[in-house]
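Q: For a teaching session next week I want to show students how multiple molecules come together into a single three-dimensional assembly. I've collected the sequence lines for a complex. Could you give me the predicted C-alpha cells for the whole thing so I can convert them for display?
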Amino acid sequence: MRRKVNEMNKIWVIIKREYIVRVKTRAFLIGTIVSPVILLALVLLPGFLATRGGGERRVTIINQTGDAGLFDSIKSKMEEKSDEIPMSGDQASLRATQFALTHIIAAPTQSLDEIAEQQAEKVRKDSGQTFVILPAGVLDGASAQYYARNISDFSIRKLERAISSSIIERRFARAGFDKGRIEDFTKSVDMETNKITDSEIKKEEGSISFIISFVMLFFIYMSVLFYGIFVMRGVIEEKQSRISEVLVSSVKPTQMMLGKLIGIGLVGLTQMGIWALTAMGLTVFGVSMFASRGINFPNIPPMLFVYFVIYFVLGYFLFATLYALVGATVSSEDEAQQAQMPVTMLLVVPMLIFTVIMNNPNSALSTGLSMVPFFSPTLMMMRIAVVNPPLWQILLSMAIMVATIFGCVWVAGRIYRVGILMYGKRPSLAELGRWLRYS
Amino acid sequence: MNVIELRNVSKKFDSFVAVNDLSFEVKGGTIFGLLGPNGAGKTTSIRMILDIFAPDSGEITVLGEHVSSPIQQRVGYLPEERGLYKKMKVGEQLTFFASLKGVSSREAQLRAYDWLEKLQLKDWKDKKAIDLSKGMQQKVQFIACILHEPELLILDEPFSGLDPVSTELLKNVIIDLKKQGKTVIFSTHQMEQVEQMCDEMCLINHGTKVLSGSVRDVKRSFGRNTVIIDYEGPDSFAGEDLIKRHKRFANHSEMVLQDGVDAQEVLKRAVESGARVNRFELVEPSLNEIFIECVTGKKPEQSLAAKGE
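A: Of course. Below is the structure for the complete assembly, covering every listed component.
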C-alpha cells in the first residue's frame, strides 16, 4: 500500500512541475488574456461598430417617371424604423446606416447612359455619393439602376426594398385600389425558424446554431492542436537536454508521460476556466448592455459547455498522447515537424468534412463519422450544437474515445520508454513495432 | 554484503547483443570501477541495475532485493548524458529531483543549500540552469543525484568536463561518501582515477566481462611486464621483438615487454647499443596499459586474469 502512494506521489511531483513552470510563463499570461479579447472583438465588433455608425449614404434619386410623389414615398419608407431584430452585424449596420436622399427629376426621354455620364463625375469625386435612376418604365417592370463606387454595400438592400414597395404601391394605386388597403395587400410574409429538440420546441435563428457549432468546432480543434504540440515539445525538450536520462532513474517512463499529459492538460483547463468565467461575466453583465443597443448575445445552453469541456478533455488526452509518442521518436523539433503530420492530419480531417455534418447532421454518414474517436471531439460536438443527437450516441462516442485513449496510452507508453533514451536516426515503423515488444 | 549482484545477465536489442552473460558483484562500502571502451555495454548494464531496462535473461539484485521503485529511491544516478531544465532555477531543479525520490521540499531545500555551499555554487541558487557554465551544471547534476542521501551511487563518467579544481573537489566528496559507508560505482576512461580511488573493478568489452577483481589483484595478475627506463642515447635497442608498446616521456620511457621476453634482455641490448642507462625498473603495468591490452584483444591469457580475482 505504501508503495502505491509513493508512485502516485511521483506522478504528482511531475504534474506540479509541468503545471507551475508553464503557468508562470509570460506566454501563458498573454495567451490567456489576449485571445478572449480577440475573440470577443470578432464576435461583438461588427455589431458594435454598426451601432456606432454605419455611416451616411448620400443617394440621389433621378426620377424619370414624372411622378414626384414616388420620391416622397421612398423617403418615408427609408425613415421608417424596421421592426425586425437584427441578428448579424450586416443587418445591424443596415439598420444603423443613415440615408440622405436627394431628388432630381429628369426627362423621360433622356437615356440611362446619358444621365449616368452626367452624374458619374460627382461619385468619382466623392465616394460617399451614389445615385439611383428610376426609368420611366419602372412602373411597368423596368429595373431601377443603382450606381456607386461600392456596389456590395449591404445597406442598399434597404433602399431596394423601399423602392420596390413604393413602386408596387403605385401599381396598385394605378389599378384603382383604395390607398388604405394597399398596405395590407403588400405586407410581406416572414418565416420564422423553430427548432425541435428532445424536450421542447423553441424559436431559434438558424444562423445562431451554425455560429455556435462552428465556434465550438474551431475552439476544440485549436486548443487540442495547441496543447498537443505543447506536450510534444515538452517531450523533445526533455529528450534533447537529456533530462529524461536523469528522470528514468527515479520514475517509470509511463509515469513521466502521464505526469506531463495531466500537467499540461491542467494548464489547458486553467486557461479555459479563465475564459469560461470571462464569458459568464460577459453574459451576466454584458447581455443587457448589448441588448439595449440592439445586439443579441447568443444564448448558449449550459449543457453545451459541459459537453465542450468533456470533449476537450477526451480529445486532448487522445491527441496529446499521440503527440507525446511522436516527440519520443524524434531527436529535434525539425524532425518533429515532419513526424507529427499524420497526427495533425487526423485532427484536420474533421475541419475539411464538417460540412457533411452541417448539411445532414443525422444521416448515417454523419453519425458514423462522429463515432470515429479521432473525429468525435469536433464532429460529435458539432452535432450536439446543431441537432441534439440521442444521448446514447453521445455516450457511445465518449466510451469509444476512452477505450481508444487507453489503447494509445499503452502503445505510446511502450514506445516512449524506449524512445526517450534513443538518439540519432528516426526509427522506421518496423523498428517502432519492435520497440513495442521490448521488455 | 554485496550491494549489487549480476548473475549471467544478457540483454539484446534486436540482433545487437549489448550485454552477454555478464556476472559481477559490488561489495558494500567500496568504490567500484566499471570500465570498458565506448559501446562496451556499460550504460546498458547500469540501466538494467537501475530497472530502466529489464534483462532478457539472468538475475540482478540491488541492495539485497530485486530492482523496483522503492529500491530506486535508495540509489543515486548520474547519467553520462546530463540534463537540467534550461529555464528552471538551480534551487528549484534540485528540489524537483529530490522530491521525485521522496524527499520533502523543505528538507530538499535545506540539503540543497548545504551542498551548493560545499561545491562553491551557493551564489547560483536562483540562477537559471542556462546561465551556468558546463562544469557548474555538472556539479549541480551531481548534487541532484545525492540529495536524497542514497546508499548506492552510480556515476557515469563523473569527472568528464570538470577542471582540475572541481575534479579534486568531487573526488574528495566521493571518498567522503565512501567513508560514510556508501557504495559507489563509477565508470570512466581515466584509468589514473581508477587506480587512485577504486577498490575493485570490472572491465567489459563487447558486452562480456574481460577481467574483474580488486585493482591490486588485477595488476598483479598481469605480472611485472613493464620496464621504466631512463637513458641517454639512441633507442634503436627497443626493437619490436622485445617491446610491444613504447611510451616516451620527457625524462623516461615506459616499455611494455612482448610476452615471454626477459627484462634483462632489454637492459643488455640497451647497454650494448651504447645508451647510457640512469634508471631501470621493472614494474606492474598501469591500468591504462591493461585496458588497452584487453580491449585491443592482444592478450590471450585474459581469462586467466579474470580467474585471479
